[in-house]
Specification:
Helices cover 52% and strands 11% of the residues. The chain is of the alpha/beta class. The protein folds into 2 domains: 134 residues, Response regulator (Rossmann fold); 61 residues, Arc Repressor Mutant, subunit A (Orthogonal Bundle). A 5-stranded parallel β-sheet has the order 2-1-3-4-5, with helices on both faces. Helix 1 links the parallel strand 1 and strand 2. Helix 4 packs across helix 6. The chain is globular.
């Protein structure tokens, strides 16, 4: 990072945004940062200014990071987007890479991994962590149709992961800033698409496919 770069940091937690900026500022003292705490702010800033790279959190109230990722990719196809998340790689890494993200970095390993991801993004390359590379390889070995959960929409998949991790419908609704009725509708759709009957079967499926921790 020899030359000044403009980095947009999107996360609904102020402390997280400051932490990410501190990590990158140490590596690149000339970096210029922008802050967004919501999907709406992120999209407004993306349209208002030119950015070299975007750091994007998946879990935000209202429209989440997956929605923002799709909108940014559609409007700015060449803009590198690094997804930063507290969720395990097995839940979202492959999905965000397929949607066009440059990298998927866990927040708890955001030091050197984040710097490597940003360096790669500025070169126009993707940065794949070793553990994600293993999952990509395993994914290629599966049958062409892929597992059933890959047929779900991004929002349905988010609801699946929340319910499979033991969240109630109400808790999932609060986390995604949606109504209980909407979450219940998503749950019904998920069970129908995956040919499952209840939450217990859904949780067993998620554990079997590595979407949640078997001990969680």
């Amino acid at each position: 990072m020899g030359k000044p770069v403009k980095i947009l940091v999107v996360d609904d937690h102020y402390v997280v945004r400051q932490g990410l900026k501190m990590i990158l500022a140490e590596h690149c003292p000339t970096a210029i940062f922008g802050d967004a705490s919501s999907a709406q702010e992120a999209l407004e800033l993306a349209w208002k200014e030119t950015w070299d790279v975007v750091l994007l959190d998946i879990s935000m109230p209202g429209r989440g990071g997956l929605d923002v990722l799709k909108d940014l990719r559609q409007s700015f196809p060449k803009l590198p987007i690094i997804v930063i998340s507290m969720h395990p790689e097995e839940q979202f890494a492959l999905r965000v890479l397929k949607l066009g993200a440059s990298s998927y970095i866990r927040k708890d390993s955001a030091g050197q991994e984040l710097i490597k991801g940003v360096d790669a993004a500025l070169r126009g390359a993707k940065y794949i962590t070793p553990s994600i590379a293993e999952r990509l390889a395993a994914n290629l070995e599966r049958d062409q149709e892929g597992p059933t959960h890959e047929t779900l929409s991004d929002r349905e998949y988010q609801v699946l992961c929340l319910l499979a991790s033991g969240k109630t419908v109400k808790e999932a609704a609060n986390e995604l800033s949606l109504s209980v009725k909407t979450i219940s509708t998503y749950r019904t759709r998920i069970l129908e698409k995956m040919n499952l009957e209840n939450n217990s079967q859904l949780m067993r499926y998620a554990v079997r496919h590595g979407l949640v921790d078997a001990e969680g």
